[in-house]
Design brief:
16 helices, globular
Length: about 475
């Protein structure tokens, strides 16, 4: 095999024949052609249809009970309460009309002891946090109750916008005592007990929050997509497509409702729908939840570093990297974090100094060659590029489902992977261009910051208007 000089992101410029051959082989495994992306898109779109009409899908396609679009002209002051992986954030959101929003916020850390215990302990902690936040923003003695929206990054089953039950505590949460209990009601009771003048008006999922926040600013927003520790998307769907037998829709002409896709589970019932490699199979098999969230395990921040680590260990086993030197760190699952991929991907120094720092100072390898570092950089690029292309194909499934390309649309993007991985937004865009050609110009990708909490506050406002017009 020749040692011809390649463009930087296309693989090692130097190396043995065996190294160059191994990288070529990896490139073939991780490269997805436009045809493969189209197949993936079509399969995911089919799964959306199944999920909208039954509970037999691995994508839950959960109705949010948000069916009024924000106009961007609403005004008022609302509270947003957000519970994510390790923090609670509380927002005081002022809607000024004309799509303008201002916020004040504070963050409170959820201690690990609260993550594995009774739901009431978590509820009490959140209510205490809201109490101290209201003092902080000078809203302690409010005469009129403040409307609050609560956003959780967990799958929710709704029977109304303020009646929601957690289907599954994911991430590292093991909460007891919450089965079949309406989270909004638990919160409301706790506020009343402490004589805090707050009405819990809405409970929503994070992706739904992002979609609402962006919809207030940009009325043609169709989809919100999160690529962070995990991944999810929500979008506006027509009432006529929502055919679940247990969902009775309001009688609104040409109505639309936000659907929380829970697309991280795509492929769980049929892994053959995903273009998985030997490395993906290993990540899944060795994870705490084998067979669950298979799509998420190919694209989200919790798993991307682990895919790279497993590839590096495979190359090392084949004596293609680091002169066969093992370290405890390299052998430790999830030790190689997505943030290291980000640092390596941004490294354009001639000797790849940042890559050297990650490998030698963090992963504790005694020494690395420039060829080693170039191979590692290529591995990171290939894994990241594949994730971006899969995300683009998944977004494309929603665009096709709503047949929305002609009139143009806005997509709200958020999450640490999308925002901090070098070239990730460009790669998503490149894949959309491969799928749509020049029509890609009809798609506007925007980033939503603090979308979850702002969206929760807007959901509270929407529920009040929905009740008034019912």
């Amino acid at each position: 095999m020749s040692h011809s000089r390649r463009s930087f992101s296309q693989g090692p410029v130097t190396g043995t024949d065996a190294q160059i051959e191994a990288v070529e082989e990896l490139r073939n495994h991780l490269n997805l052609s436009t045809e493969e992306l189209k197949q993936f898109r079509d399969d995911l779109r089919h799964e959306m249809d199944v999920g909208l009409s039954s509970d037999d899908s691995h994508m839950d396609m959960l109705p949010s009970w948000v069916y009024k679009h924000p106009t961007g002209q609403e005004t008022g002051e609302y509270l947003g309460l957000e519970m994510s992986g390790s923090n609670i954030r509380i927002y005081l959101v002022n809607l000024h009309g004309q799509g303008r929003i201002s916020t004040r916020q504070q963050k409170y850390v959820i201690h690990d002891s609260l993550k594995k215990g009774d739901i009431n302990s978590v509820i009490d902690f959140m209510v205490e946090s809201v109490d101290s936040f209201l003092s902080f923003v000078g809203k302690y003695e409010v005469k009129e109750p403040l409307a609050l929206g609560f956003v959780l990054s967990f799958p929710l089953k709704h029977t109304a916008l303020n009646k929601a039950f957690v289907l599954q505590w994911t991430k590292d949460f093991e909460i007891t005592g919450a089965d079949n209990k309406n989270i909004a009601e638990l919160l409301q009771i706790a506020f009343k007990r402490r004589h805090i003048n707050v009405n819990v008006e809405a409970v929503i999922n994070g992706a739904v929050g992002c979609l609402l926040a962006h919809s207030y600013r940009s009325l043609d927003t169709l989809v919100a997509c999160t690529i962070s520790t995990g991944t999810n998307a929500a979008y506006w769907e027509k009432f006529e497509s929502i055919k679940k037998s247990n969902v009775t829709l309001p009688s609104v002409e040409n109505g639309e409702m936000i659907i929380n896709t829970e697309w991280g589970s795509f492929g769980d019932l049929n892994p053959g729908l995903l273009p998985r490699t030997f490395y993906d199979n290993r990540v899944n098999r060795q994870s705490v939840n084998p067979g669950v969230h298979l799509f998420e395990k190919m694209v989200s921040g919790l798993y991307l570093g682990e895919i790279v680590r497993i590839i590096m260990v495979d190359f090392l086993d084949r004596r293609l990297l680091f002169d066969g030197q093992y370290t405890t760190e390299l052998n430790t699952p999830y030790f190689f974090e997505a943030s290291y991929m980000s640092a390596i991907g941004s490294d354009d120094t001639p000797d790849l100094e940042a890559t050297k720092h990650v490998l030698e100072s963090i992963m504790n390898l005694p020494s690395t060659t420039l060829s080693d570092r170039r191979i590692v950089r290529t591995i990171c690029e290939l894994v990241s590029r594949r994730a971006a292309r899969l995300v683009a194909a998944a977004i494309s499934a929603i665009i096709e489902k709503r047949n929305s390309l002609e009139q143009g649309l806005t997509i709200s993007m958020e999450g640490s992977v999308y925002e901090s991985f070098p070239n990730f937004p460009r790669r998503v865009n490149d894949a959309l261009k491969a799928l749509y050609g020049e029509n890609v110009n009809h798609i506007n990708l925007g980033v939503t910051r603090d979308g979850n909490g702002i969206g929760a506050a807007i959901a509270a406002m929407i529920n009040i208007t929905q009740k008034q017009s019912a």
